[in-house]
Amino acid sequence: MKDVWEPENKFKKWFDIEVSACEALAEMGEIPASAVRVIKEKAQINIGRINDIELEVKHDVIAFLTAVSESIGDEAKYLHLGLTSSDVLDTGLALQLIDASNIILDDLKRLKDVLREKAHEYKDVVMMGRSHGIHAEPITFGLKMALWYEDTNRNIDRFVRARETISYGKISGAVGTFANIPPYVEEYVCNRLGLKPSPISTQIVQRDRHAEFMCTLGIIASTIDKHATEIRHLQRTEVLEVEEPFTKGQKGSSAMPHKRNPVGSENISGLARIVRSNCIAALENIPLWHERDISHSSVERVIMPDSTILIDYMLNRLINIIKDMIVYPENMNRNLNLTHGLINSQRVLLELVRKGMDRDHAYRLVQKNAMKAWNNGVDFQKLLLEDEEVMSQLSETDITSCFDMEYHLKHVDYIFKRIFG
User: Fold this and answer.
1) What's the DSSP call for residue 182?
2) CATH code of the domain made up of 342-402
3) Are 360 and 382 in contact (CB under 8 A)?
4) What's the pLDDT tens digit per position in 18-46?
């Protein structure tokens, strides 16, 4: 990813655009074909020289063209013929964003592979499902991994669409009217570089495309933040169902030698805030003055390299965490029993309703026993068996069946088939 945003790569793409435009003009007979050959043979990209010139002219594209022209000679007069700076900048940016997208898509696919493996490994490992952070009903850790797998699938789908949205170039001149450059040049350049011509442009490709791309990165950041946040919660000392890998020689605290902190996941959550905040900047870039102003340019030089680099880093960090994370099934089982069977309250409620009891009355009856079990730390099933009103509707076998763990897991295979096929 670093290579995508290096000046050397950027200037190489700019030169490819300029040469492609020259080739198109030569095909049309607008410039000599021999000039294109000389440009290709003699051109050199000297980053130091470009930087020196830019210090004087205060314009990056002019500095680039001047430096390259010095190495070519007289034929350099055919470079940038009829083009404006944004023809090069926006088309080049599209090429860089596509390269960055391909790296991120590869990361997402590798994350999906790791999650598929973990989902099947822990498909039948029962754990506590929680809502509001409170014990709800049992799930399996494999289901949680399957959920993250499906999250990643959606991120891949939407990021493919986002890559498509920014895969547009423009070679249409100062205000997009092709006044000084024929439309064929744009078609030729974009086709040669694997882009599509923007159907209509001003001096720039419109920035809603880039905002969509950035907001998709924001969704990816928030999704993996969701996964990292869950790992952080599950690693809390009181829970300890999952733990980040803790490598040999690693230290968790400068003061407390016992600490094993979820620093990788916390790092991901923190960096996600940067990517999300960059979405706002991208949205602010959409409204520009008339056919273009330059207020978006300085923003994009920061948010696009930073966000793609961060997403690449965050995905790789999450992949390594999930691949090597420590899972504690025994702690999951311990936590299942913390509430003395209260997690089966809905089963009892539904059974009473099936026997003919009014739902609200059944709810109050089950809740009364549930609160008693909670407040006194006693077994919920035992209280139900001692409740005359409950026993007037249910048999001991009925109540025992309400505490069967397999009841909650009977459709796990169905869910897995729906996701993994």
Assistant:
1) -
2) 1.10.40.30
3) no
4) 999 999 999 999 999 999 999 999 999 99
